[in-house]
Amino acid sequence: MNKKALAILMRARMRPNHLTNFALSPISNELNQILSNSHGNRSGENGEHHAMEHGKEKLNHQRFIIYESMHSVISMNKTEVGDSVLNEFLEGYCSLSFENRRKLLLTLAKEYDLNRAQVRELIKQYLGLQPPGSEAQSGGVADEGFLSTFYRIERNLRHSLKPVYETLFERLNTHPEGLKFLTSIRADILSILTEGNIASLRALDSYLKEKLTTWLSPAALELHQITWDDPASLLEKIVFYEAVHPISNLIDLKRRLGVGRRCFGYFHSAIPREPLIFIEVALLKNIAETIQEVLWDNPPIAESEATCALFYSISSTQPGLAGINLGKFLIKRVITLVKIDMPHISVFATLSPIPGFMQWLLSKLASQSKLAKAEDISRSPADRSGLTFYENILEPEEERALIDSSGDLASGKSGMEIMLNLLTPPTHEWTNSDKLLSALKPPLMRLCARYLLQEKKRGKALDSVANFHLQNGAMVQRINWMADQSEKGLNQSAGIMVNYVYRPENIEEYAQSYFSKGHIHSSYDVKRYIQVL
Amino acid sequence: MNKKALAILMRARMRPNHLTNFALSPISNELNQILSNSHGNRSGENGEHHAMEHGKEKLNHQRFIIYESMHSVISMNKTEVGDSVLNEFLEGYCSLSFENRRKLLLTLAKEYDLNRAQVRELIKQYLGLQPPGSEAQSGGVADEGFLSTFYRIERNLRHSLKPVYETLFERLNTHPEGLKFLTSIRADILSILTEGNIASLRALDSYLKEKLTTWLSPAALELHQITWDDPASLLEKIVFYEAVHPISNLIDLKRRLGVGRRCFGYFHSAIPREPLIFIEVALLKNIAETIQEVLWDNPPIAESEATCALFYSISSTQPGLAGINLGKFLIKRVITLVKIDMPHISVFATLSPIPGFMQWLLSKLASQSKLAKAEDISRSPADRSGLTFYENILEPEEERALIDSSGDLASGKSGMEIMLNLLTPPTHEWTNSDKLLSALKPPLMRLCARYLLQEKKRGKALDSVANFHLQNGAMVQRINWMADQSEKGLNQSAGIMVNYVYRPENIEEYAQSYFSKGHIHSSYDVKRYIQVL
């Protein structure tokens, strides 16, 4: 595919088929339809469906082959497993519909997990032996013999507790396309699990995730800069997977790879020409306050004048790698690289979305308004503070300003109700009124600081992006009003964005104190909003 | 290091120090000496060694830090482990003497293996639960809850059976130099184990080997051609590690990377500029019969005239990866690459040493000669066949020819004794006598064919190189007289070499029948020697 074709693709804004090699192929849908039926209606098979018997037989046979190849991959001895049987399974799996993949994965999870009779037998043997060091041992040759037996049985027990499907994963991983295929299998599993929990499949997923985590160890990943000179087949993936600030056209893409910009990706040798995760960097004079400055500054400043590397977008490309933190080492390595390349750059910051802010705020406003109504409608706002779960999250002067400015745009008995009505999507009419903007800014900025610094789940920041950067060793530097006025930005965080700053000399210390004590480092400016100075 | 320096290095024929980054550093030897003593003499510490107290304290402190950093890497929570503590351990380990490394590794093997109290507690919990499917289950929501508990406990048990030192391995593997470091740790372990078996360390080794095998999955390895344009730092490694046919000078090296030659290496992204294994290929008109043709054909033929790719040397570079078969996929991938690049090449063969032939033959000759003497010295050779373990491995006409031709060079009552005396190193005088050469050729060629095709250990070819190629799917094509007249070639196999042939269309089939039935495919020419046609 050349760059002209890429341009056409971008105009068409279609999901290119060949991007997802392992996605469902439309030609096999009919086949799958029948396969699925033939399985579902097994009880009626001897009835009126004679006319379809032949076609079904052929299709059943085809599915039989897929299960058969899966079984072969698992049960053959390792020297016997050739590429042909792996290919057969790989291609067979890809030809299945989602429903048939689901059935196959459930078979794998339930019928290829453990040989529990063997586990129990080995446990019996194991419990019959005295563990080393349990009695005074002389350390002689006889003991070494006993110890060898003990370690052997312990090892056998450990191996017997590995699910049988590990063999499938291990063997697929030796296939040239195997790692990519395994991540797409995991993407399927995650989709299935969103429909409802299935314990056996959940167990399989957690096992597969462990394996993928080892295989994708940072040691096996290579950091490369992505430039306009890279193949269009790679660049179209950047366009396709950019998750934070969509790339709107070819000029936009070229801009993000050109002067004053950098793009780095983590690659694995088994998944060539496709970054697993990539990060976009802008070289600036100061830490940007709005995403507009970053995406549409034209012309960019000379690179030699830059003092700040701003990470403005991090996107992962493989849904099947969800929950595997690849970004941690990425940011550290990019910082190292940029420092070597451009010693005049001393500030490493992000301009990040706050994806969970509005969700948290709206649910807080809704529940508090409801509480207030239900428990005591007649009390004055000041009296309500006595109620057990009630909390007026607005300051008195914020409440007053909201009531004064809302006018016709939003009704409500309290400041919180008004705020809830104003902020509830889909419209964002408040952004068109200067009066509302100035009434909303103080409570929104204050509550955003509170959300980022104080709202936690199991000791970690509630916001997923905040948690990501904090565990990587960043600090909260600044929150920016009207920093992302896109539909998405307004929906997620009322347009507010945040700068996290990475100080190379503090990265380890901050990551550790965040981890061990849940401590969130932040600047004076952000702390000031919530007066925890 | 530039190529001039490389040339100087090769003239000096020294082992370059920096090739083995993790090897013992001479400057730390004195320190180690004292460390080692201070540990060994702990009981006498309060005695006459007062003068050394201060120095010892300092050194003990230094060693304390190394053990402490090992402990930290293992016991810290994963988000807390930073590069600094990994570096501390890595550098600390490298500064230790072999003896102190031994002590540290034994501590690791014995004190960081399993928490066996926890294992027993989890076994108790596990045995208290009914495994899924053991009773009729309705598949309802309640069952899913029970199953989740069951899988969780099973998973906990599995995790508890993983040695604690796995954490050290996993974390080192995230360090940029970690994988290389782990292979050198394994090399140390293997050296320690050659001195005597230690069950706990053997168990640690087998665990580390499993981990390395997963990390070095073919999916994580990249195949690259190595050329004269590569950095000298890489080329010196080729010179240093070439294990089959030593590279004698810079012209020899250049020749092996030039016209009519190829060199391919398997690289891992975590071990840059150092192939884990490499293979040397000659492009020829016919399958070479002697190594002289390959190493000293001058000038080589035009590449366009070649029809045969001859693999004449495979060397692995990491002693710490012993027992991990990297070569299998290497050969398959090189064949694929060469076929794409040069479609006129249709024959893929090796010219291989037979490293175990003479060892097998000499011990066979020695034991049979002894048996003959001990059991019945007076019987005629024909009568001896009745003895239980006795086997005259020579044919009557071979025996006669040997007795006739040996003259003053070797004494002996039987053909076998004469043969034993002639072939026993260190001299190879028989190679200077045409009479002896022609008397020895028939039995040596016949017995070599027998050794390759019939002598087995646990169903596999006794010869390690034969086993390697046969399990990769090759066949035995031809054995070649006086094919390697170097000292090493004469010692290993009386100068005989063998051609294995890879037929791309048969590779899988041959590998499978070798594996499952121990079947060794061979040509008519080789079978003829032992008349198994």
From TrEMBL, chains A, B:
<dbReference type="InterPro" id="IPR038917">
    <property type="entry name" value="Malonyl_CoA_deC"/>
</dbReference>
<dbReference type="GO" id="GO:0006633">
    <property type="term" value="P:fatty acid biosynthetic process"/>
</dbReference>
<dbReference type="InterPro" id="IPR035372">
    <property type="entry name" value="MCD_N"/>
</dbReference>
<dbReference type="GO" id="GO:0006085">
    <property type="term" value="P:acetyl-CoA biosynthetic process"/>
</dbReference>
<dbReference type="GO" id="GO:0005759">
    <property type="term" value="C:mitochondrial matrix"/>
</dbReference>
<dbReference type="InterPro" id="IPR038351">
    <property type="entry name" value="MCD_N_sf"/>
</dbReference>
<feature type="domain" description="Malonyl-CoA decarboxylase N-terminal">
    <location>
        <begin position="153"/>
        <end position="215"/>
    </location>
</feature>
<dbReference type="Pfam" id="PF17408">
    <property type="entry name" value="MCD_N"/>
</dbReference>
<dbReference type="InterPro" id="IPR007956">
    <property type="entry name" value="Malonyl_CoA_deC_C"/>
</dbReference>
<dbReference type="GO" id="GO:2001294">
    <property type="term" value="P:malonyl-CoA catabolic process"/>
</dbReference>
<dbReference type="GO" id="GO:0005782">
    <property type="term" value="C:peroxisomal matrix"/>
</dbReference>
<protein>
    <recommendedName>
        <fullName>Malonyl-CoA decarboxylase</fullName>
    </recommendedName>
</protein>
<dbReference type="InterPro" id="IPR042303">
    <property type="entry name" value="Malonyl_CoA_deC_C_sf"/>
</dbReference>
<feature type="domain" description="Malonyl-CoA decarboxylase C-terminal">
    <location>
        <begin position="220"/>
        <end position="502"/>
    </location>
</feature>
<dbReference type="GO" id="GO:0050080">
    <property type="term" value="F:malonyl-CoA decarboxylase activity"/>
</dbReference>
<dbReference type="Pfam" id="PF05292">
    <property type="entry name" value="MCD"/>
</dbReference>
